[in-house]
Amino acid sequence: MNSDSLPIYILLGGFAVLMTLRVPITFCLLSATLMSAVANGTNLSVMVRQLIDGVNNFSLLAIPFFILMGEFMGAGGISDKIIDFTNLVIGRFRGGLAYVNVFSSMLFGGISGSAVADVSSMGPVVIPMMVKQGYDREFSVGLTVTTACQGVLIPPSHNMVIYALAAGGVSIGSLLMAGLFPGMLLGGSFALMCWLLAGHYHFPKGVAVPRDQWARIIIHAILPLLTLAIIMVGTGAGVFTATESSAIACVYVFILSYLVFRNARLREIGKTLRNALRTLAIVMALIACAKAFSYMMTELRVPEMVTMLLLSITENRVLLILIINLMLLILGCFMDMAPLIMIMTPILLPIVTGPVIGMHPIHFGIMLIFNLAVGLCTPPVGSALFVGCAVGKTAIEGTTKKMFPLFLTMVFALMLVTFVPAISMWLPNALFGN
Prior knowledge:
Layout lengths: L5 H15 L4 H16 L3 H12 L6 H15 L1 H13 L5 H17 L2 H19 L3 H11 L10 H10 L4 H7 L1 H22 L12 H23 L5 H19 L8 H31 L2 H12 L3 H16 L4 H16 L8 H15 L7 H10 L3 H7 L1 H16 L2 H11 L2
């Protein structure tokens, strides 16, 4: 073994071995990084500096606000009001509850920005509703899990913030705007698939909502949906930065949950804050360790090696993009989204923005996050899939089989987003220019 290659083997091989042993991802990253640094002769004080720099970034302030906002929504029962609204609009058609599932996830995901939050908040409501009307339970769970992935694309999304940090110099506001149309495209694709399945599997027809309830349902839904307007309009119009809009939206959701609707109790706010702090600690520790891991990869010139490897396979632009997509889809099956964003961005960004592919960093960010969103609902490590099966009380194997048409739908939408840059780039270009 070449001594110059030893640190690379330790970094990548050590990380893979620790992952196989089911060591928590944060400790996998940290242990592999420190062992590789020692083998490479890198001063450990440099690694400590990288850990600190990983979280010492003003832009990252948006993440705790987004996380806390999601907790406030869960405590305030915001998902119930979104489901009631979509059921009022489209629930009366054949397969209506399937459409309700799709568009409720689009709206709620566009407020919470988290696929797991979407599943855990909406699943206990919409899955029993679908089963009661006669839908297959495993299909109901699978639809809830896959549609929740819209939440990581439609703003707000803290994963966009993580990508902006990993890519360096990429506007968070532009990224948030770029995810809107791809998320809506994914939702529209799911609705089309549900329409096709409705006739084939004879989905039941929904029940119309009585007219005397319309006004109450609409008013209760408009208030939560203004959260999305605060983030989209404020950021898009340049009134707020992404960090400022996340803080304002968080305060607004707090007022809705605790003072307007009063579904959440002030005496239980300590539990909500602890849940948010626990999630934040996991995310920030992960970002810090992934930053150090990325530094070691750059120091050892791993991105250059990967570039040379891919270009040695082919220099055809389309084939390279398909290979990168396939690689990300496979990796998403085994690792969670946040560490993959931090690890793969410095490796792949020089390739996709280079002369052979020539992709814009914002377009690549949407493609990357879309790929990894698919991983949230694929075994063996799909966090959204696990939560959905736990909520719906189904087996992962059976649910995964019923999700096959939905997986095809996601891949179809992914290919459109990948090869039609305007889907991602039109809105940020229109709002912020090139």
